[in-house]
Amino acid sequence: INATPFRSLILHLTPSNPPNVQPSSRPPPPPFPCDPSAVPSLRSWLSQAPVDSIGCTVVIRPELESLRRDYEGRGASASASAADAPSLSDEVASYVSGFASLKASFPNLRMAVNSPTIVDAALSRGDDGLFDKALAASLLEKVDGMHFKETQLLSAPGSALGLCRERGLDVSLSTHSMHSYRRCEEVLEGEGLRPSFALAGTCYLTGSHPEKDERDCRGLELVADLADAGCDVVAIGGITPERLGEVVNRGADGVAILSGWMEDNGEWGEALTRHMETHPT
């Protein structure tokens, strides 16, 4: 990450149907390509953005239950001759490895995963049979960091954070208030860690969270507060190329893009390049 006013681009790839979201009369969010089949198009998009100049972290969140349902559904309809088909653990490994392969094309790209289940398995606490300790450990070797929701981080056992520390993994978090950020910061400090960055939002209304309204969009205030506190802060929620200047002026070190890259026709590459040209130092 360069020491520039705008230092990083975060691609946060999440499932199209996040758990614990109640049905809404609003239009459903667009599908997020959070499986390895999205890698070629994501690689193409990254090649048009100055990611080597500003730094980029891709955060993936394996929706393990969706993978399990999909796998079991296909298994139930498969014939007995499919005994040699990949196991569920193979599919999870393929999911993480597929995105990790992007690092071969972009040496400065960093990869983070939001999946406490993988950490649990690496610590031999997993009991759902998704994958064993050796596989979980090998998956962690493919990533540079672990990303936590604030609720996940506050409930994370010290051994999980200790594993991140021992493996030299970056620890980042999502937060929605200064109060919760301070609590998360205390937890990390207790383990000798500090957040590599904090995702702060929601900044603007976005289709990925149709359950939210204007009252929930106080992310810009949080961005400014976190920046004043000396945190490396990344703005998230409805960020578009046109809004880049506003979030940077509020103190953001970077922006997170969820579905925006899928609808991009070059605007993000132009906006980022233009910003780098006007802020060379």
Outline the secondary-structure elements.
Blueprint: E1 8-13, H1 39-47, H2 51-54, E2 56-60, H3 64-77, H4 88-100, E3 109-113, H5 116-122, H6 133-140, E4 145-149, H7 150-155, H8 158-167, E5 170-175, H9 178-190, E6 198-200, H10 219-228, E7 233-235, H11 244-249, E8 254-257, H12 267-278
Parallel strand pairs: 1-2, 1-8, 2-3, 3-4, 4-5, 5-6, 6-7, 7-8
Helix pairs in contact: 5-6
Descriptive notes:
With 281 residues, the protein is of the alpha/beta class. Helices cover 40% and strands 13% of the residues. The protein contains 12 helices and 8 strands. It has an 8-stranded parallel beta barrel, surrounded by 4 helices. Strand 6 (198-200), helix 10 and strand 7 (233-235) form a beta-alpha-beta unit. Helix 5 (116-122) crosses helix 6 (133-140). The protein is globular and about 50 Å long.
Q: Helicity, in percent?
A: 25-40%
Q: Biggest sheet, strands in spatial order?
A: 1-2-3-4-5-6-7-8
Total strand count, please?
8
Specify the number of helices: 12
- Give the CA-based shape: globular
Structural class: alpha/beta
